[in-house]
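User: Modeling request: complex.
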Amino acid sequence: MRTATETPLLAVDDLHVEFRTRAGVVKAVNGVSYSLNAGETLAVLGESGSGKSVTAQAVMGILDTPPAAVTGGQIRFKGTDLLQLSEEARTRIRGEGIAMIFQDALSALNPVFTVGWQISEMFRVHRGMSKRDAMKKAVELMDRVRIPAARERVNDYPHQFSGGMRQRIMIAMAIALDPELLIADEPTTALDVTVQAQIMELLAELRRESGMALILITHDLGVVADVADRIAVMYGGRIVEHAPVHDLYRSPAHPYTRGLLESIPRVDLKGRELHAIAGMPPSPLDLPGGCAFHPRCPYRRAACASDVPPLYQVGWTRGSACHYWREVLDAGRR
Amino acid sequence: MGRYAIRRLLQAVPVLLGSTLLIFLIVFALPGDPIVSLGGDRRPSPSVVEVLTEQYHLDEPLLVQYWHYIGGVLFRADLGSTYQGVPVADLLASTFQVTLRLTLMALAIEAVVGVGLGVWAALRRGKAVDTMILAATLVLVSVPTLVTGFVLQLVLGVKLKQWTGLDVFPVSGVGDGLRGYILPAFVLAGLSIAYLARLARTSLAEVLRADYIRTAVAKGMPRGRVITRHALRNALIPVVTYLGADVGTLMGGAVITEGIFNLPGLGNLLFRGVYERQQPVVVGVVTLLVLVYIVCNLIVDMLYAVLDPRIRYE
Amino acid sequence: MSSGTLARRRAGGRHKKRRGRPAGLWADAWHDLRRRPMFVASVILIGVLLLMAAWPSLFTSIDPFDARTCELRLARQTPTPGHPFGRDNQGCDLFARTVYGARNSIVIGMLTTLATAVIGGLLGLLAAFHSRWADAVLSRVTEIFFAIPAILGALLIASTFRDSEVDSILLVVFALTILGWPMAFRIMRAAVITAMSQDFVTAARALGAGPWRIMTRHLLPNALAPVIVISTINLGGFIAAEAALSFLGVGVRSPDISWGLMIAEARDRFQYAPLPLVFPALFLSVTVLAFIMLGDAVRDALDPKLR
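Assistant: Request completed. Predicted assembly structure:
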């Protein structure tokens, strides 16, 4: 674990994001904090609507404002609060310092430009390279993300590639300028299972080679185990548990995490009834008071409906936002 | 691409034949002998009637007449002649210039003003400017050409001259080169400006919400570049195709505008044709307009394939 | 499952909650519309215009068809008490003529809209629903009609039959309908094809519903909305087209009154006596505006996606 004096690469501190819609104010992110050192991989886990993507978009500065508004907190990248920077300064950091890839590469790539044009644009705009040199770099990058026959395909359009290849092109674009941080927002959700594994492998490999940090946003516990160093679990716009990946798998300290782990089908438990978390995820328009998870929680007491649990320190390296985390932890060990 | 073009061209043939036949039927459905009414009070001599009847196949069934006509148009580029013997092609050539100039100027105005307003509104979506542009387009759609024509003629043509002493916009005729076309072109473009502005606004607003725009921002592209390169390139696809298809509509509408401003264009010719019962002239004018419409639509289809790579390989 | 619930599901869950009671697509739209100023304004305007068309004598005591009310020596008189718009080139009361002009515009607009919607709608339904063969033929036919500039086509039809015994108003309706129906056809055909590809129609088919039931219970309720919207907007367009035809001398003929005809009669002396042209032009524009506004508002209310 880091020492107190070291500046983390990225530190999100008590971030609040709201969406002001016709139907009312949606509090999408309610005081999220996490930090990440250079070269580290953090997995952010949660269902849709938990605020995991919104947090990442706030870091990237690509929220649609309005309706979205960052109403509090700090996002420090190498010590500088991004929220205080001018739009020009933030634009320079995007792509150079922090890059991002998205879930659906087909809609995330511009349909009317060739993939070569879209990759080489990074070099032309950020580095002022000539068209020809930038195109050469684009071919190199396509090779690096292992697109077969890169030289021939550089002038093809996104719709001419398969889903996995398109996601590789997104990745090539994102790593073009060697960013220190890559945010991958559900990078494999839209892909076939076999292709998912290939893309995760590619990401892990690129991360090892370049030493960049990675934030992996996903709702799929299975995806993160091999890749992530630490996991942050989000629910109702808050982080409910964060822990090194193996600790979390071995002994969850939050009932929600526990429920998630128990609902994964396992070969060794074949034939037994699969566990499911009771109830439905809450609407961000109308979050339950107190702990947002309490209506679905098997451990709930009276206090859960009224007191918002802080992120309790669990040992040196973990945190859990559950009043009764000890019980959960003990139940898991038994 | 080539095969696609040929296929579209072949599809256009029945449309051309069908619409000219339709016009032919409408125009010649009129009872009465056009040649008898030709000389006004003096009846033409029987020999003249005979020659003309022979020449125009007037004694044969309508469909046969049509066959002779369309055969001439397609294989000999012969559009026939008036009953006085003036070739329709000559009449069309001189008047088409006027209408074409008017239409092209209106198209240019439409493109600049319409796209400008639409893009401006889309970039200020929900703000006062957006609301004002939307309201203005609504009014523009609602005020008939007839009304805008006379109002602009009065205010910009007549009153402006009275107040300033300068003849900025001549109100009728084409004596002053292209200057005489400015006012009628604005009037003609009015309705299309409104539609185009709305189309451009909707299209750009939609594109600005697209995922690939978010990607461009995430790539660290400056806002100006995101809008001009990434967004407009996509948003203008429907706009450009609308413009292409609008050429035919503008030419049709030019008839009324020419009437208001006394421009000697196709509209003028058509009127004379209608009132003087010169069916070959009437059919010629409409056939020409149908041809323009078909050619424009072909160009639009090709343009679509050029602008949108997703269409190209289907 | 009734078509009402299905329609509501299509309209989006957001509406369902609003009052906690079930409502259909149209009920949702109505709920939304009542609070749109554009809708309220257009409905009031159209109400006044309909009243004007039905009982013009409510608005003016002068009968413009009575030649004794015209005084040629007072031609082009500017507004005076009792003659709020002044007098036209024949010395007739301009206000009375403008008010009485509403009837022909409204009647022609409505009849043409009805005729195009019925003809185009039925053919569109037939093309989408019946067979590929019918679809191919009808679609080619509409392409032919689209190739002819509408106002020119109407001009030719109206001028061809000008000397026949046909009533001039019906002739205008006829001419505009011939050129106008393909629009309703295309909208209806597209709407039915969209509706047919939706899951609930497939489900109804799988459950053994007959073609008649599918058409009347599932397709029509969903496909009718766009046709009604386009028809409302087109109504304004047909009124403008009537004015253009009358202006060109092939539409409504004197002694009948029409705004287009009034504009044509006033144009010669328009540069120094603009009022006889301005007032019918104003009424014409406001009428067209009212219908387009109504159509716009209804479309926005029916299509939650556009918000």
